[in-house]
Automatic annotation (TrEMBL), chain A:
This is DNA primase. Its EC number is 2.7.7.-. Residues 349-362 have a biased composition (Basic and acidic residues). It comes from Cyprinus carpio carpio. It is an enzyme of class 2 (transferase). One of its GO terms (biological process) is DNA replication, synthesis of primer. NCBIfam families: primase_sml. Pfam families: DNA_primase_S (PF01896). Keywords: DNA replication, DNA-directed RNA polymerase, Metal-binding, Nucleotidyltransferase, Primosome, Transcription, Transferase. InterPro entries: DNA_primase_S, DNA_primase_ssu_euk/arc. Belongs to the eukaryotic-type primase small subunit family. Gene3D superfamilies: DNA primase, PRIM domain.
Automatic annotation (TrEMBL), chain B:
Heterodimer of a catalytic subunit PRIM1 and a regulatory subunit PRIM2, also known as the DNA primase complex. Interacts via (C-terminus) with PRIM1. Component of the alpha DNA polymerase complex (also known as the alpha DNA polymerase-primase complex) consisting of four subunits: the catalytic subunit POLA1, the regulatory subunit POLA2, and the primase complex subunits PRIM1 and PRIM2 respectively. Within the complex, POLA1 directly interacts with PRIM2. [4Fe-4S] cluster binds at C275, C355, C372, C412. It comes from Cyprinus carpio carpio. Its cofactor is [4Fe-4S] cluster. Residues 448-489 are annotated as: Disordered. GO terms for cellular component: alpha DNA polymerase:primase complex. This is DNA primase large subunit. The lineage of its organism: Eukaryota, Metazoa, Chordata, Craniata, Vertebrata. CDD domains: PriL_PriS_Eukaryotic.
Length: 420, 489
């Protein structure tokens, strides 16, 4: 097992090592600066830390990557949350005239938590997860990713494993970060199909006409339904899971579909679809997505109970993603301590020349030696895509895009050189 | 006030320009002089209209035939020009009265939007287009080829669209941020961040615009309010207007400490409305409530008279029986209880939720127990619960009928009548704390509480204002009318 038994009691020893040598600070800073297009974007970002003994501190902010590193290494947070970009530096919010300190922008985020599915999964409950119910997360990611890209036109989505029982999505497009509270809540409502609490048995209600979004989502669910619900969860074999009283439900293996016979005369032409959606469709917490100032667990932070790192998920390998293979902090610290190869000694010489760069280079070499490497790569690719898209935007803005955009840029350069 | 002397001067020549459309966005404030009487009358009439809009919005499905007919009936018939002028002026007067707090603004915006929507839908198609052009709402129309390729999807996403309609009429491409109401309810086709709006749905877009403008305007009005309030003729009028809406908000705790923690279990069965009884039971059984439930129930308890210390004790003792130890409670949950009482953060003394708020906002999901059981529970489960609480089968049926008709507050009132064994509740239910107060009043057979309530309302409404002897009478009549608006029973 790649878990390398994690013991929460070791956190005080492991975290300092993690923050000194493994946490990908430069990529993290690159992400949150968003190309430096907006002034003070990073400086006005709120972070919150949960320190040892559950001490919670809000309104942390940093002026440079260096300061972020130093502070994190000093405070050694057990949990890190990312909040909004404010009108002023969060660390100075008390000095600001009351009413003028405001949350301005933040990524659009989604939080899918396995506990919200407790009424429809038999294998686990509460904080537990297993390979059987993890499929729910796969389905959630596929459905939401498609909708956010194709329906809403977003491009830069970062999916992150939460470390224990769910996944988070960070939508990082410019337009997404500027969304109002009303817009965020509208997006979350559009994406919600499963409604109702303890008191509701029939949580999905469909009526004509069926919106294209629902059809897209159904086709994703159908791909996974037989293996997940019929085989793994064995929903038909259970008396615990409630169906609507007047329905008798069976599964047609030949046509791979749910077949529903209803005793009552009311409506219900879509009972089969409703059942599939009730068992599989993503359940998101609208309140997490609504607030511009809502704080959400940061990627690459450690989950104190499981020790797992909140790593980005590579959607190209989504079907083989296994939350139990995600490295824990103890594993990667252990991998770090393994004897170093000869080439490492050469690099040591180069390091002595320039301490600061050396620190970074060492860190880059360090995480590459651990299981964290492949996840940082996913993050790198995500950052690259955003950088490319920013370049495209800048070219567009710096005048009309004509065939000779290169010529155009030369002209600008010539001008500015002259003015110097 | 730029125009000296007689109003009549204005009506003459520019009559056609000023009010050339029956509907407007209220972009420009009125610039004429009006008498104090007109000021008062216009304001009260519009307020009455907005209250009617509010009540209809709760008891009927908005924009259904029934709703439209009833609203038609309320709008009186006077000359078109007079109507429009009154509309213009009264809107701006009420802005003054309703700009000051978040709650007032929200209410005002909601009713004005509903009114606007009703009136826009009433317009002929040509007038709709006129309105759009006049107000600079130019949205891109979708090309014929694109319409053809998306035809099926458009029909499947929008209400009332057929193949021919798509071909013949315009479809507008609008950034999804400008069509939030349609996005929220998934009543529109979305592609690459754009909403494809058929011609007849354009009202929702217009409404969005209306809401944004009004919201900004109210914020600005609030800033210039001090200047207006210094006019002693207007100040009492304006504050009475806004109190007519707020009325009893149960944040005044005259009865702090009159409830002891031991009484709560018994009270929950006798005097709590169903929603709070449900929450209390869930708390006792699970030794936990999620945020939505804690807010709704916690604020209610504050409203019935629990002090902060009592509340902390109550919640702690319950949570500690569950998975939360005393330390964790103090760290995580105590803060939020103190927050409710206005002792943390921005120190707002939050008011207990009214029925409207419970019914319309924050619907419960898996693991939640808050909300209005008449609105949010499955009818089957609601029936069972009522039977468990020993409501007669015929009574249960009456309640279920009301629920089917979406008359949730009436259903709760019926529940009150059945559990207290009275034919008529004697009040019009709009707040869970009101349910509690009325119940206690009934059970103790006393009139004391009601008198206290009346007294406090009167004392709120009479700041030491200088009343001119000659106008004293009309002022009193005006104040009485306002009083009536806040107390529909």
């Amino acid at each position: 097992m790649s878990t390398s038994d994690y013991d929460p009691a070791c956190l005080p020893d492991l975290l300092p090592l993690y923050y000194r040598r493994l946490f990908p600070f430069s990529q993290y800073y690159r992400w949150l600066s968003y190309g430096g297009v907006s002034k003070n974007y990073f400086q006005n970002r709120e972070f919150s830390f949960t320190l040892k003994d559950d001490i919670y501190v809000r309104y942390q902010s940093f002026t440079t990557q260096n300061e972020l590193e130093k502070e994190m290494q000093k405070m050694v947070p057990y949990k890190i949350d990312i909040g909004a970009v404010y009108s002023h530096r969060p660390s100075q919010h008390n000095a600001v005239k009351s009413g003028t300190f405001q949350a301005l922008e933040k990524e659009l985020v989604f939080d899918i938590d396995m506990t919200d599915y407790d009424d429809v999964r038999r294998c686990c409950s509460a904080a537990d997860i297993c390979s059987k119910c993890w499929t729910l997360m796969t389905i959630a990611i596929r459905i939401l990713d498609r909708a956010l890209r194709e329906d809403f036109g977003f491009h830069h989505l970062l999916w992150v494993y939460s470390g224990r029982r769910g996944v988070h999505c960070w939508v990082c497009d410019d337009a997404a970060r500027k969304l109002s509270v009303a817009a965020r809540s509208a997006v979350a409502e559009y994406l919600s199909l499963v409604k109702g609490g303890e008191e509701t048995v029939r949580k999905v209600v469909l009526s004509d006409p069926i919106h294209p979004f629902i059809n897209h989502s159904l086709s994703v669910v159908e791909r996974y339904f037989q293996q997940y619900a019929i085989v793994d969860q064995d929903i038909l074999g259970s008396k615990e899971i409630k169906f609507h009283n007047s329905l008798s439900v069976s599964y047609d293996l030949h046509f791979s579909c749910v077949s529903v016979k209803s005793n009552s005369k009311k409506g219900g032409q879509y009972f089969d679809k409703e059942i599939m959606l009730q068992y599989c469709y993503p359940r998101l917490d609208v309140n997490v997505s609504k607030g511009v100032n809502h704080l959400l667990k940061s990627p690459f932070s450690v989950h104190p109970k499981t020790g797992r790192i909140s790593v980005p998920i590579d959607l190209k390998e989504l079907d083989t993603f296994d939350p139990f293979e995600v490295p824990t902090i103890s594993l990667i610290c252990e991998e770090l301590e393994k004897p170093r190869a000869e080439e490492a000694e050469e690099d040591d010489m180069k390091d002595k020349e320039n301490e600061q760069e050396a620190g970074e280079r060492r860190r880059i070499r360090d995480y590459k030696r651990t299981s964290l490497a492949k996840y940082v790569k996913v993050f790198d690719r995500f950052l690259e895509a955003m950088a490319r898209s920013r370049k495209g935007e800048m070219l567009k803005k710096s005048g009309e895009i004509e065939k000779d955009s290169v010529f155009h840029i030369h002209l600008i350069l010539a001008f500015t050189l002259q003015m110097d | 006030m730029q125009f000296p002397g007689r109003r009549k001067k204005l009506i003459g020549s520019s009559q056609n320009d000023l009010y050339d459309h029956c509907l407007q966005f209220y972009g420009q404030p009125p610039l004429e002089n009006i008498s104090l009487t007109e000021f008062e009358t216009f304001a009260v009439e519009r307020l009455k209209l907005l209250k009617t809009v509010e009540n209809l919005g709760v008891s009927c499905v908005k924009n259904s035939e029934q709703y439209t007919k009833k609203l038609d009936a309320e709008i009186s018939r006077i000359s078109e020009y007079e109507k429009r002028r009154k509309d213009h002026i009264s809107h701006f007067i009420l802005r003054l009265a309703y700009c000051q707090t978040e709650d007032l603004r929200r209410w005002f915006i909601q009713q004005e939007m509903d009114l606007f929507r009703y009136r826009f839908n009433d317009l002929h198609s040509k007038h709709k287009t006129d309105f759009l052009h006049k107000n600079n709402l130019k949205y891109e129309t979708v090309s014929a080829e694109e319409k053809k390729s998306l035809q099926d999807k458009l029909i499947a996403s929008s209400y009332g669209l057929s193949g021919t309609k798509v071909e013949e009429h315009d479809v507008y491409k609008v950034p999804f941020q400008d069509a939030l109401d349609l996005v929220r309810t998934r009543k529109v086709y979305l592609l690459a961040g754009n909403a494809y709006i058929p011609h007849h749905e354009i009202v929702t877009i217009v409404l969005n615009d209306f809401r944004t403008r009004l919201s900004k305007a109210l914020a600005m009005t609030a800033r210039s309010l001090p200047a207006v309030q210094s006019d002693e003729r207007l100040q009492p009028l304006l504050s009475h207007l806004s109190h007519a809406y707020v009325g009893q908000d149960y944040s005044i705790q005259k009865n702090i400490g009159k409830i002891s923690l031991e009484q709560i279990d018994a009270l929950s069965g006798k005097s709590f409305p169903l929603c709070m009884r449900h929450l209390h039971k869930a708390l006792r059984e699970n030794h936990h409530l999620r945020h939505g439930g804690r807010m709704q129930y916690g604020l209610f308890l504050k409203g019935i008279g629990l002090s902060l210390e009592q509340a902390l004790q109550f919640w702690r003792s319950e949570f500690v029986k569950g998975k939360v130890d005393a330390d964790k409670f103090d760290k995580a949950y105590a803060y939020s209880v103190r927050h409710m009482f206005g002792k943390e953060g921005k120190r707002t003394d939050y008011t207990p939720y009214s029925c409207m708020k419970v019914i319309l906002s924050n619907p419960p999901s898996q693991g939640d127990y808050h909300g209005c059981p008449f609105r949010h529970s499955d009818p089957e489960l609601l029936k069972q619960k009522l039977q468990n609480y020993k409501v007669s089968p015929s009574g249960t049926n009456q309640i279920l009928e009301l629920v089917k008709g979406m008359h949730y507050q009436l259903a709760c009132q019926k529940y009150f009548e059945l559990t207290h064994n009275v034919e008529d509740a004697g009040f019009s239910l709009n707040h869970p704390n009101q349910y509690f107060t009325e119940s206690q009043k009934l059970l103790s057979g006393g009139r004391d509480i009601k008198k206290e309530v009346d007294m406090s309302q009167r004392s709120q409404e009479n700041p030491a204002s200088v009343t001119r002897p000659s106008q004293a009478n009309s002022k009193q009549i005006f104040l009485d009318e306002i009083q009536e608006l806040s107390d529909p029973s």
